[in-house]
Design goal:
It is a single chain. This protein is an alpha/beta fold. It contains eight helices and 13 strands.
């Protein structure tokens, strides 16, 4: 399995910080933010990685990550998303050649977690696998709606009144059919190709599974979540904060 890190966008919610560089290169304690999703993939045995970036600071990634060798990446590629607000599925569509008809592990570049997902990646066969996490603010995310027997009935994108507090984290496993499904997507009201719509295609085909993401997880897309994420990793690495 190959890995795809989605690190485009303009990071407008973090202005003025992101006037200077791409959101995913902002510091999370002692490392650039994107190092954390890289480490998730590497710890699961994925050594071939594509970074999808975009916006005016895309070139900053090359200075920070170079060819990936210092980070332990065997093979690193970059691609550019022309439409910065095109959506997650639009960004993922750029990985089709890189995937080379194989499955992909996709992680958002602003997601940090200390969860071990190596078993899920090792045992992945086909369809799609999404990772869910209980959060206090599910209205910010795609939210899983469950049936009485614990199966996912649907996924709602940023609902005003969430039917559960299980957020779809920014970590997904997809088989090689994902790119055909993306071509069938229509832009949402936001004008984006939504990953929620993509997951719902797999759900309708009976090919969507889910796993609980154990351990810490946070996106760092807002000033509050970026601050909270920095606190966690600082404490985890031994810094005493009063």
């Amino acid at each position: 399995m190959k890995g795809v890190i989605l690190a485009g966008g303009l990071g407008t919610r973090l202005y003025p910080l992101t006037h200077a560089t791409n959101k995913h290169l902002l510091p999370v304690f002692d490392q650039p933010m994107i190092y954390y999703p890289i480490q998730v993939l590497l710890s699961a045995g994925i050594e071939e990685i594509l970074v999808v970036t975009g916006g005016p600071h895309a070139g900053d990634f090359i200075r920070v990550m170079q060819n990936g060798k210092p980070l332990g990446i065997k093979h690193l590629e970059y691609t550019f998303q022309e439409k910065s607000d095109g959506g997650i599925s639009d960004a993922l569509s750029l990985a089709e050649d890189f995937a080379d008809n194989g499955p992909v592990a996709v992680i958002l570049g602003d997601n940090t977690t200390d969860a071990d997902v190596s078993e899920e990646i090792k045992n992945f066969k086909d369809g799609a696998l999404i990772f869910l996490k209980e959060v206090p603010d599910p209205e910010r995310f795609g939210v899983a709606v469950f049936s009485k027997d614990g199966k996912i009935e649907s996924i709602e994108e940023k609902p005003e009144k969430p039917k559960s507090n299980y957020a779809v984290t920014g970590l997904y496993l997809f088989d090689n059919k994902v790119f055909d499904y993306i071509r069938k997507l229509k832009p949402s009201q936001r004008g984006q190709l939504e990953v929620t719509d993509l997951n719902n295609i797999y759900l309708k085909k009976g090919k969507l599974r889910w796993a609980h993401l154990n351990g810490f997880w946070s996106d760092a897309g807002t000033a509050e979540s970026l601050f909270r994420t920095n606190l966690y990793w600082a404490r985890k690495k031994g810094v005493k904060i009063t």
